[in-house]
Amino acid sequence: MFQQVKAAAISFVPQKFELESNANQLEIMFREAAANGAELALGPEGVLEGYVVNEIIAGEVPAKKMRDVAISLRDPIINRFRALARELNMCLAFGLAEAIDKDVYNCAVFIDQTGRLRGTYHKMQLAEGFHSSWWFNRLGKNSRAFQTPYGRAGFLICNDRWNADIARIPVLDGARYLLIPSFGSRSKSQDLAVLARARENGVPIVEANVGVTMIISQGEIVARSRKQTTITYGTIDIPAPPSKQNRDAHEQDFLTWRKKEMSARHKKTQAKKQKK
Predict the structure, then answer these.
(1) What is the CATH number of domain 2-240?
(2) Would you place residue 176 in the very low, low, confident or very high pLDDT band (cuts 50, 70, 90)?
(3) d(Cα 24, Cα 98) in Å, to the nearest integer?
(4) I want to staple 45 with a disulfide (CB 3.0 to 4.6 A). Which of 1, 155, 163, 183 is the partner?
(5) Spatial separation of the C-alpha atoms in residues 180 and 206, rounded to whole Å
(6) For residue 85, what are the CA distances in angstroms to 41, 74, 79, 93?
């Protein structure tokens, strides 16, 4: 048993340290996705602040500038997208720099079509490594699946996708599909890594990477683009969770099919006998 959901993966290059303009562009593209029938739309990693960690680590800008663009989940910008989800009647997910006390986390959020914040996630694995002094780039502490209108879901963020264990954690927590906001490698090997995560876990994946948008369902890539500014659409088949109710419903579907199929096969068998 599967639930079909039309998904949209969004890509554009956000401006560094420009919260307002990035939020405006993200809203424009969410609106376009909704107008084209998407029920769920995913934006890239760090799309609000422009993914500025690398510039800070390289010493190109002072770390204190992160304070200007890291926001709490109670920020007016988050409330803006909660209201947008309600208006569009569409689930939204995207990346941001989340401020928690004096620390900042690479975060992804999921907002349902009623405007409710359903899930948050902090990146668990960093390509650049980690040092305890990096208050502006803290490591996530755990990964948990969260409930959505389409069943439980889980996040990976960018570099997480290379690690099969990170993908497995939310699936073992009941996730029936995975979302991957990214701002990283556009290589073919990244495509293969995401495809492997889908096949290993038997779940569909939507990836919104800047320059690679990809949708995987039933172990195959159903839509992909390497345009930097684009929206890629595809239908994902979300598997039903294990339960007595779903077991019985699936079994009944099979029995209904079997009744007709066995009769048809019997007729073919009898026809072969008559020819002899």
Answers:
(1) 3.60.110.10
(2) very high
(3) 18
(4) 183
(5) 6
(6) 10, 16, 10, 10
